[in-house]
């Protein structure tokens, strides 16, 4: 992607080549902040570091490190030799170390050491892990019965956090840490309220000597036990059990518990969510401002380097042309000229100033193609047939609401037949759905058909169902029950097609799909919390509770005498233990759901001491109160923003799209906007479906079809451009332009 000049028979990379590559990275990343040492010729290493291959290598190393407890003691797979875990851990840490070294080499080390914290975190965690590994394997290599606590395992989650590629995770954790002071204020008031009600409850009920509903001790006599019960009541897990002994004595005691729930559950918990949501939005805005500032700084550096050979401090047209060829290797002269004209620069000799160069990177989010490059195979090789009257009727019919309505009704009818176990019409439905896929491929082209996720989803379902029907009919193979269940699931998934066909459902699902990338970062932070507590839980509670089958001769439930006559054993919770990695994660998930979590905690308290409550209290505060509430705040904020945007007719890119269209039209180009299956701009209003108009259009060609035929038959393809918002990243179209105005 870079050009080279020859000097003394050897290939060397010029300074401008580095500049082109740096600007190329900046443009491809959609004006995101790019952090690497611009004063070093390390672009080839940078491309390797951010290549797909290295990304997957680091990803697998990260996953291997997080799944390593499956074969470490206490292992889920006990038969795996211990040297396998050692080799995997060494390889994974080596890959992460290599990624860290490359990352440090690509950046300004002096500035990084002065400003960043994560390099120190990585080095400290790496040294502690190596020391723990050496001691552990030396002790257990010849004696498997040696008891040693792997205290460094909870620190493994910090390895990807400390890498440069973990900047999104660091951003979320930084947001959480900034929100903690405000959360602490509400939590202090909440805990004071719990303690106040504890004193009040013990004072009212101690003299009654009532039996506890879930334990063998007395009811509301011990301050610590009462505070624990009331804290659990905040999660409603022990409601109304904890209230019933007092309720059985007098109905007036219900007022105490109702007041407690009103104050602590409905007031403080909702106030906590409101504080988290408010601070989350504020910190997110501050984070975005920092990112935009870094974008401008990086953009300014690139601009200065590209314009350094120009006395007018502008990027020349020749430099622009070489840059465009580096960014888009297959770009044509016409498209290069078209992108230049989207900037509305009067003369090529004037070049691009900082504002226009910034606008160029923004315009690269719009995909410009010549119309003949977007034609289907039939359009290219059989234009007369494809543009004929019968063909246009079929294409227009596929684009009507009538076609989608028919398919939706058939999906519902297919679901009714599946529910009634009436399979005689299965081949009819399969034939219709195959015909639907073929018609869409014919109308949109194979490439555009598979460009949409809903079509890929639909195609997979139809392919699996057809394959199953053909094999079972022709070969007469009898499938096992699990295979039949899987096929049935695929057939039922046709109902999900309604989400893709009904516009109201599609808006909601599309909104959700747009927040999934960031959503995965928050899920990763949640999993990091799970991982840390699972490692601690296995060291504290392993082999304390053992699952035994019905044929076992053990006289004690869960193989522990402390659980006799306990709610934990009566609920058959013995499988919920910390004896291996997977079981630990399941227990933590059950604790997150909070239903019966006090019963789960009580089992581990009985087999150890009441101090074990600190572990479960800490997990609830970290995972449920803090992380889960911040996760909820993110989902609410993102969904509201995306949903409001999707329902609005003023999309943020429509204004820039109109500017590009107007400038290209004035330069003699014909611009066709293309969006989704309907080939309509998302900013345009959709016409309401009319049955008579649809039938009339199906029978008689409309004026628009005649104009389409004329356009398709026109040979002036060079000046007919297709404009599409590609949306590489979610950016504010006015933000960078506004920043460049300030810089100017």
UniProtKB/TrEMBL annotation:
Regions crossing the membrane: 53-71, 83-106, 118-140, 183-205, 251-277, 402-421, 427-444, 522-541, 585-608, 614-640
Residue ranges the record marks as coiled coil: none
Record localization: Membrane
Example of a GO cellular component annotation carried by this entry: membrane
Gene Ontology molecular functions: monoatomic ion channel activity
Topological category with respect to the lipid bilayer: Multi-pass membrane protein
Domain Ion transport: 66-282, 402-643
Keyword entries, A-Z: Membrane, Transmembrane, Transmembrane helix
Protein known as: Ion transport domain-containing protein
